[in-house]
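Researcher: Here's a chain I'd like modeled. Treat it as a single chain, no partners, no ligands.
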Amino acid sequence: MSETVFSIIESPRHPNLTALFKRLGMNEVKLNSIRKANAELKKQLPDFVVAEFIYGYGSNYSGVHISNLDVFLVTLLKYKCEAKVIVLVDKTERQFVDKLNEIMSLYEVLQFPVSETDVEACLNQSS
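Model: Modeled as a single isolated chain. C-alpha coordinates:
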Protein backbone atom coordinates (compact mmCIF):
# COMPACT_ATOMS: atom_id res chain seq x y z
CA MET A 1 0.00 0.00 0.00
CA SER A 2 1.47 3.33 -1.01
CA GLU A 3 1.85 6.27 1.31
CA THR A 4 -0.46 9.25 0.90
CA VAL A 5 0.83 12.81 0.86
CA PHE A 6 -1.34 15.91 1.08
CA SER A 7 0.14 18.74 -1.00
CA ILE A 8 -1.55 21.87 0.31
CA ILE A 9 -0.79 24.40 -2.40
CA GLU A 10 -1.93 27.90 -1.42
CA SER A 11 0.54 29.96 -3.45
CA PRO A 12 2.69 29.77 -6.59
CA ARG A 13 5.81 29.39 -4.42
CA HIS A 14 4.89 25.83 -3.51
CA PRO A 15 7.10 23.61 -5.70
CA ASN A 16 5.48 21.15 -8.08
CA LEU A 17 6.37 17.82 -6.48
CA THR A 18 4.06 15.56 -8.48
CA ALA A 19 6.89 13.87 -10.40
CA LEU A 20 8.77 13.20 -7.13
CA PHE A 21 5.76 11.66 -5.43
CA LYS A 22 4.99 9.54 -8.48
CA ARG A 23 8.61 8.34 -8.69
CA LEU A 24 8.50 7.38 -5.00
CA GLY A 25 5.21 5.53 -5.49
CA MET A 26 3.28 7.92 -3.26
CA ASN A 27 -0.35 8.87 -3.69
CA GLU A 28 -0.48 12.68 -3.92
CA VAL A 29 -3.66 14.51 -2.96
CA LYS A 30 -3.47 18.12 -4.17
CA LEU A 31 -5.49 20.60 -2.15
CA ASN A 32 -5.62 24.35 -2.74
CA SER A 33 -6.78 25.45 0.70
CA ILE A 34 -6.64 24.46 4.35
CA ARG A 35 -10.43 24.23 4.34
CA LYS A 36 -10.29 21.57 1.61
CA ALA A 37 -7.49 19.77 3.43
CA ASN A 38 -9.59 19.63 6.60
CA ALA A 39 -12.52 18.25 4.60
CA GLU A 40 -10.28 15.62 2.99
CA LEU A 41 -9.26 14.37 6.44
CA LYS A 42 -12.82 13.07 6.84
CA LYS A 43 -12.19 10.78 3.84
CA GLN A 44 -8.57 9.74 4.33
CA LEU A 45 -5.57 10.40 6.54
CA PRO A 46 -2.19 11.28 5.03
CA ASP A 47 1.17 9.81 5.90
CA PHE A 48 2.83 13.10 4.95
CA VAL A 49 1.73 16.71 4.55
CA VAL A 50 3.67 19.30 2.54
CA ALA A 51 2.28 22.79 3.13
CA GLU A 52 3.41 26.39 3.02
CA PHE A 53 3.44 28.41 6.23
CA ILE A 54 1.65 31.75 5.86
CA TYR A 55 1.98 33.90 8.97
CA GLY A 56 -1.19 35.56 10.23
CA TYR A 57 -0.31 39.24 10.11
CA GLY A 58 -3.11 41.34 11.58
CA SER A 59 -6.68 40.27 11.00
CA ASN A 60 -6.18 37.49 8.44
CA TYR A 61 -6.50 34.89 11.17
CA SER A 62 -8.40 36.98 13.73
CA GLY A 63 -5.33 37.46 15.91
CA VAL A 64 -5.99 34.08 17.56
CA HIS A 65 -4.05 31.89 15.18
CA ILE A 66 -0.38 31.93 14.30
CA SER A 67 -0.83 31.01 10.66
CA ASN A 68 -2.85 29.22 8.01
CA LEU A 69 -1.79 25.85 9.47
CA ASP A 70 -3.04 26.10 13.08
CA VAL A 71 -6.54 24.76 12.50
CA PHE A 72 -5.27 22.04 10.18
CA LEU A 73 -2.80 20.75 12.79
CA VAL A 74 -5.53 20.70 15.44
CA THR A 75 -7.74 18.76 13.03
CA LEU A 76 -4.94 16.23 12.39
CA LEU A 77 -4.79 15.67 16.15
CA LYS A 78 -8.56 15.32 16.35
CA TYR A 79 -8.40 12.45 13.86
CA LYS A 80 -5.40 10.96 15.71
CA CYS A 81 -3.43 11.33 12.50
CA GLU A 82 0.31 10.88 12.88
CA ALA A 83 1.25 12.42 9.55
CA LYS A 84 4.74 13.81 9.15
CA VAL A 85 4.25 17.51 8.45
CA ILE A 86 6.80 19.24 6.22
CA VAL A 87 6.42 23.01 6.34
CA LEU A 88 7.73 25.34 3.63
CA VAL A 89 8.45 28.86 4.83
CA ASP A 90 9.82 32.18 3.69
CA LYS A 91 12.98 33.37 5.46
CA THR A 92 11.11 36.45 6.78
CA GLU A 93 8.52 34.23 8.53
CA ARG A 94 10.81 31.44 9.73
CA GLN A 95 10.91 32.84 13.28
CA PHE A 96 7.18 32.18 13.73
CA VAL A 97 7.05 28.55 12.58
CA ASP A 98 8.35 26.98 15.78
CA LYS A 99 5.22 28.13 17.62
CA LEU A 100 3.35 25.45 15.65
CA ASN A 101 5.29 22.80 17.56
CA GLU A 102 3.16 23.76 20.58
CA ILE A 103 0.18 22.34 18.66
CA MET A 104 1.85 19.38 16.97
CA SER A 105 5.46 18.42 16.46
CA LEU A 106 6.55 19.32 12.93
CA TYR A 107 8.57 16.76 11.01
CA GLU A 108 10.67 19.23 9.03
CA VAL A 109 10.81 22.94 8.17
CA LEU A 110 12.29 23.92 4.81
CA GLN A 111 13.08 27.51 3.89
CA PHE A 112 12.34 28.83 0.38
CA PRO A 113 13.60 28.30 -2.22
CA VAL A 114 12.68 24.63 -1.77
CA SER A 115 13.73 22.07 -4.36
CA GLU A 116 12.47 18.60 -5.16
CA THR A 117 15.78 17.30 -3.77
CA ASP A 118 15.13 19.01 -0.41
CA VAL A 119 11.73 17.37 -0.06
CA GLU A 120 13.04 13.99 -1.24
CA ALA A 121 15.71 14.09 1.49
CA CYS A 122 12.97 14.61 4.10
CA LEU A 123 10.89 11.77 2.73
CA ASN A 124 13.87 9.42 2.58
CA GLN A 125 14.94 10.09 6.16
CA SER A 126 11.59 8.73 7.35
CA SER A 127 12.20 5.34 5.73
